[in-house]
Automatic annotation (TrEMBL):
The species this protein was found in: Cribrihabitans marinus
Family: Belongs to the binding-protein-dependent transport system permease family.
Family annotation (CDD domains): TM_PBP2
Residue span(s) of domain ABC transmembrane type-1: 65-255
UniProt KW keywords: Cell membrane, Membrane, Transmembrane, Transmembrane helix, Transport
GO CC term, one of those recorded: plasma membrane
Keyword Transmembrane: yes
Family annotation (PROSITE patterns): ABC_TM1
Cellular localisation: Cell membrane
Protein name: Peptide/nickel transport system permease protein
Transmembrane segments: 6-25, 69-88, 108-139, 183-212, 232-255
Major subcellular location class: membrane
Record membrane topology: Multi-pass membrane protein
Length: 271
């Protein structure tokens, strides 16, 4: 087992544990304002300090972790649920009009970054975590569709697929029973990468006011609130920034470690 996998799993588990614990306990009420104690530096009862409203930053970081994880997790789930079947279908119908429609649709979505999609969605429905999930999820669909199609195309020429076709199995059954299990490892690794990108996307959307709305804490909005106070309260920006870095780093290391662990060719090459 590689060091990347161990370190990535440890960092990711730490963030997930903080999010889970926040459902049962936080040092203080994350929404409680205490103006006399505002802008306290880290230390004492407020381990990570307080913000400009006197709210405990440690409590906000813990609750913000579950916000970021929930948004990214659901968005990646949307991308996989819709993107993988599209990719399998496109590969099974390679060269057909259906393959062309699916891939050109992917190109169309890729032309609009998740932030632009979020702006379009919020212009109609208003800002919020649900709309952020929809925006990030839509952007994930073509990612998984392309990854699945590319991996599946190389499998359709393999001998065991030809044997399944000779046995009378249809394209849908072959995709479900033979193609999907053989691309699952790749999808798991890509899922961890998209999860980390989802964390970044959620923070970016919240930073510009399109993500989770008050009083729900969000790491991105914490950074936005801190941008005018960096000179005299740097901990307000440093702590959520470190939380984002640790989470994204952990997920990227986890994805890299899973790739090495699940792909025997890479493992053999490195040894």
């Amino acid at each position: 087992m590689s060091r990347n996998l161990i370190l990535g799993a440890a960092l990711s588990s730490l963030v997930v544990l903080a999010a889970l614990v926040s459902f049962l306990w936080t040092p203080f009420d994350h929404a409680a304002m205490n103006i006399p104690d505002k802008l306290r530096p880290p230390g004492g009862a407020n381990l990570l300090g307080t913000d400009h409203f006197g709210r405990d930053i440690a409590s906000m970081i813990m609750v913000g972790a579950r916000t970021s994880i929930a948004v990214a997790l659901v968005a990646v789930g949307i991308g996989m649920t819709l993107g993988v079947p599209l990719g399998l279908t496109a590969a099974a119908r390679k060269g057909s009009w259906l393959d062309e429609v699916i891939m050109r649709g992917n190109d169309l979505v890729f032309a609009f970054p998740s932030l632009v999609i979020a702006i379009l969605i919020t212009a109609v429905f208003g800002p919020g975590a649900v709309n952020a999930i929809i925006a990030i999820g839509i952007f994930n669909i073509p990612v998984f569709a392309r990854i699945t199609r590319g991996a599946a195309l190389s499998l359709w020429e393999r001998e065991f697929i030809l044997a399944a076709r000779v046995a009378g199995k249809g394209a849908a059954r072959i995709s479900a029973e033979h193609i999907l299990p053989n691309v699952a490892n790749l999808l798991i690794v890509q899922g961890t990468i998209q999860f980390s990108l989802g964390i970044l996307a959620e923070a970016g959307l919240s930073y510009v006011g399109l993500g989770a709305q008050p009083p729900t804490p969000s790491w991105g909005r914490m950074l936005a609130d801190a941008q005018t106070m960096v000179s005299f309260a740097p901990h307000m920006a440093l702590i959520p920034g470190v939380a984002i870095i640790v989470t994204v780093l952990g997920l990227n290391l986890l994805g890299d470690g899973l790739r090495d662990w699940l792909d025997p060719r890479i493992r053999v090459a490195r040894t």
